[in-house]
Design goal:
seven-stranded antiparallel sheet, elongated, 17 helices, 2 domains, Rossmann fold, six-stranded antiparallel sheet, single chain, alpha+beta, 501 residues, disordered C terminus, Glutamine Phosphoribosylpyrophosphate, subunit 1, domain 1, disordered N terminus
């Protein structure tokens, strides 16, 4: 998880990909914006730069009114007014968004979602998780046709496509707009009296449908259902548009539409299981906790560490995202009859201020010490197996290893529950440039990476091993582009976030 920093002077976790966004929507309940607030709180790990909520209500003349509150910072910072949900966000439906920018200038308040417009068929608001690979092309076409853009975000393209459609039915307008999009999108869309959810044909990013009493909920992850006491119904299918509307007899009804009738093999982002999603969520139809434990077990199957001194081997995680994988790793060592203990060797501070700035940018070591501390009595004179989910630049990993060395372990063995990250992502994750990735800096030479990090041994999972751990799915159903360079949707090699900034 990244710590939001408006000055961009320090990132407490530069060795991790930056989280993208979280979306939430609800129709047909009292205080929907309060439900949305709690949902966004549960999805805070998916974006800490900004948050926003749009609510729909009716005034005394039975005219639909949309209200919006949004701002920079964490959910609790943005919605901190005492009466915000009573006076500003009352109504019968709402959608919300947590933001980390993948396209669009990160500091611009205009880019904070949801986006809201009023067009010939009424109000329309949209919240988007993902990244459109053809957004620049579509934007140029729309500008040529006279469209005026207020933001630098690819999400605004979706609003313009819907609003400029010449079709008369709103569902058809949305379907027409979505059919023109390429790349990754999981959307919640709110109109005057309907809530929509849509997912790209390859299903890169997760999106789920839930229910609480007679109300329906849409969310990026099911942890946003749990906090609201809602029931998980199913995933929004890849290439599906769901319409939720009121019905005088049935209360609320759901209709499903196909965005693309062509048969396409899904390409779920495997990194959602490795790192992004919360372990208590269910995404892509499977429990994240189960998948991470399996990743840990598979990692131990092929990359076990042994110590002839049976009392010395301990397994620890880099908290918090690697905790579950470490459990799976140690369980598999026991199955192999390799004596070991699962220990807590690192303590992570959860109170690092989001505006924390180093006195000197070059001094990254203090950043690690602010966030982590060792349990010296656990690590001293032990063979330490350190489990982490991924390495991006390697800077934090290097400082973390140095910190563990100060506790005088016997040796340190780093095991990574994913392959080396070698390529950028264009579908909703944000890595640094390819040149900054440690796997490319050392030309994929694991031994040189090991020396740089200062560990006694280093082993990653292979792509085949990682996919072997995806036990509930066909291995061909995952996108592995950041590891393999095989992009399911063709992208321009020059496509970069900076082109929008």
């Amino acid at each position: 998880m990244n710590i939001y920093n408006p000055n961009n002077k320090f990132n407490c976790t530069p060795d991790k990909p930056k989280c993208h966004c979280g979306v939430f929507g609800i129709l047909g309940t009292d205080n929907p914006s309060v439900r949305t607030y709690y949902g966004l709180h549960a999805l805070q790990h998916r974006g800490q730069e900004a948050a926003g909520i749009v609510s729909a209500s009716k005034n005394g003349n039975e005219k639909y009114v949309f209200n919006i509150v949004k701002g920079l910072g964490l959910v609790s910072d943005v919605f901190n007014k005492k009466d915000v949900f009573v006076k500003e966000l009352n109504g019968f439906a709402s959608i919300g968004h947590n933001r980390y920018s993948t396209t669009g200038a990160s500091k611009s308040r205009k880019n904070i979602q949801p986006f809201l417009v009023n067009y010939r068929m009424g109000n329309l608001a949209v919240a988007h998780n993902g990244n459109l690979t053809n957004a620049k092309t579509l934007r140029k076409e729309l500008v040529t046709e006279g469209a005026l853009f207020q933001t630098t975000s690819d999400t605004e393209v979706i609003l313009h496509l819907i609003a400029r459609s010449r079709l008369e039915n709103q569902v058809d307008q949305i379907l027409e707009a979505l059919s023109k999009l390429e790349g990754a999108y999981s959307l919640t869309i709110l109109s005057n009296d309907k809530l929509y959810a849509a997912r790209d044909p390859l299903g890169f990013r997760p999106l789920a449908l839930g229910k609480i009493n007679d109300s329906f909920i849409i969310a990026s992850e099911t942890c946003a259902f749990d906090i609201n006491g809602a029931e998980y119904i199913r995933d929004v299918e890849p290439g599906e548009l769901i319409e939720i509307s009121s019905d005088s007899k049935a209360g609320y009804k759901i209709r499903s539409f196909k965005i693309n009738t062509e048969k396409i093999i899904p390409k779920h982002c495997v990194f959602e299981y490795i790192y992004f999603s919360r372990p208590d969520s269910k995404i892509f139809g499977s429990n994240v906790d189960k998948m991470r434990r399996k990743l840990g077990k598979t990692l131990a199957t092929y990359h076990a560490v042994r110590d002839p001194d049976k009392e010395k081997l301990i397994v620890i995680s880099v908290p918090d995202s690697s905790n579950t994988a470490a459990i799976g790793y140690q369980n598999e060592l026991e199955k192999q009859e390799i004596p070991s203990k699962l220990e807590i060797g690192l303590i992570r501070s959860h109170y690092v201020g989001r505006t924390f700035i180093l006195p000197e940018q070059s001094n990254r070591e203090i950043g690690v010490r602010v966030k982590f501390n060792t349990v010296k009595g656990v690590l001293e004179n032990r063979t330490v197996v350190l489990i982490d989910d991924s390495i991006v630049r390697g800077t934090t990993s290097k400082q973390l290893v140095k910190l563990i060395r100060e506790a005088n372990p016997k040796s340190i063995h780093l095991r990574i529950s994913s392959p080396p990250i070698s390529y950028p992502c264009y579908y909703g994750m944000d890595f640094p440039s390819r040149e900054e990735l440690i796997a490319n800096k050392f030309n994929g030479n694991t031994e040189n990476i090991r020396k740089y990090l200062g560990v006694d041994s280093l082993e990653y999972m292979t792509i085949d091993e990682m996919l072997e751990a995806m036990v509930d799915h066909d291995r061909e159903h995952f996108c592995t582009a950041c590891f393999s360079g095989n992009y399911p949707v063709p992208v321009n090699s020059k496509l970069r976030k900076e082109e929008y900034d």
